[in-house]
Design brief:
With about 280 residues, the chain is mostly beta strands. It is about 5% helix and about 20% strand. It has 2 helices and 15 strands. Strands 9-14-10-11-12-13-15 form a 7-stranded antiparallel beta sheet, with no helix packed on it. Strands 7-6-5-8 form a 4-stranded antiparallel beta sheet, with no helix packed on it. Strands 1-2 form a two-stranded antiparallel ribbon. Strand 11 and strand 12 form a beta hairpin. It is globular and about 70 Å long.
Length: about 280
């Protein structure tokens, strides 16, 4: 996919860019594999807001993606490459030889008519095939990786991402994740060979507030623009600094920006090397 720009006919057009949908082969989704999902607007099951600045957005159907792909040793043919409004990557509609259809995350350069397979044993390590990590050659890129075997793909599912297999021992394989973190994953976990499609998605410039509202993002206000009752940074005349504080604070008074918040977790033992911290511009 490429990113497309238009002539700056309006201020919004000048700053924005859009996806090029030339790789899409079908515009309407498979009706049997879609469902309506209720919008939660950042609220949990109790109705409390746990993620701020969410709400609204265009109505859209949810495409039911098969993250497990446990229909083993049955060949499937790629029927269509489709756009999914719920994620950045493309999705592929596949049909098995017994007639069953399902959606999967499409890898880079996948074409209509390709034959793919999922298996619990060693098969050809080609683009789109899914198998346990112990049978995938070292150095290859994989995506949609299980952390807990049998649970379905949990990590490396974003547009353009891929994890590289580095080495293997008796029970685990070492993988370099897109974040640069090196992690141990069970050899029995399933993964799909290749990289997730639509790598240029991160280059899209949304350009104006209206497009973000269509995506379901509501406006964000800086703490220093609030009143003291609403935020630790609030108050003062005009665009005042945050005051005599050691560093920036969250809305609830806790240290923010660059502070480690991860507590001792059972998964710490699987992290061989932490991700490299990106420098703030």
């Amino acid at each position: 996919m490429a990113v497309k720009k238009y002539k700056p006919t309006t201020p919004g057009r000048r700053k924005s860019s859009v996806q090029d949908f030339s790789d899409i082969t079908k515009t309407e989704p498979e009706k049997s594999l879609t469902k309506f999902i209720k919008k939660r607007a950042g609220r949990n099951s109790s109705g409390r807001i746990t993620v701020r600045h969410r709400g609204g957005g265009a109505r859209r159907l949810y495409r039911m993606i098969d993250f497990k792909r446990t229909k083993f040793d049955i060949e499937a043919e790629v029927k269509t490459i489709e756009y999914d409004p719920n994620r950045g990557s493309r999705i592929a509609l596949i049909e098995y030889t017994d007639g069953e259809k399902s959606y999967i995350l499409a890898p880079v350069a996948m074409k209509v008519g390709e034959k793919i397979m999922s298996s619990g044993k060693k098969i050809e390590a080609k683009r789109g095939n899914r198998m346990p990590l112990e049978f995938i050659p070292e150095g290859m890129f994989v995506y949609n990786i299980e952390i807990t075997p049998g649970k379905g793909g949990q990590i490396v599912r974003g547009a353009g991402t891929g994890a590289q297999l580095m080495s293997a021992d008796k029970e685990y394989v070492q993988m370099k994740l897109p974040s640069s973190e090196i992690r141990l994953v069970s050899k029995k976990s399933l993964a799909t060979v290749g990289q997730v499609s639509n790598s240029d998605y991160k280059l899209v410039r949304w350009g104006k507030a209206g497009r973000m509202r269509l995506r379901g993002f509501r406006p964000t206000v800086k703490g220093k623009n609030m009143n003291p009752v609403d935020h630790p940074h609030g108050g003062g005349e005009g665009h005042s600094p945050i005051g005599l504080k050691k560093g920036p604070r969250t809305k609830w008074g806790k240290p923010a920006l660059g502070v480690k918040t991860r507590k001792e977790k059972a998964s710490n033992k699987f992290i061989v090397q932490r991700r490299k911290k990106k420098k703030r511009k």
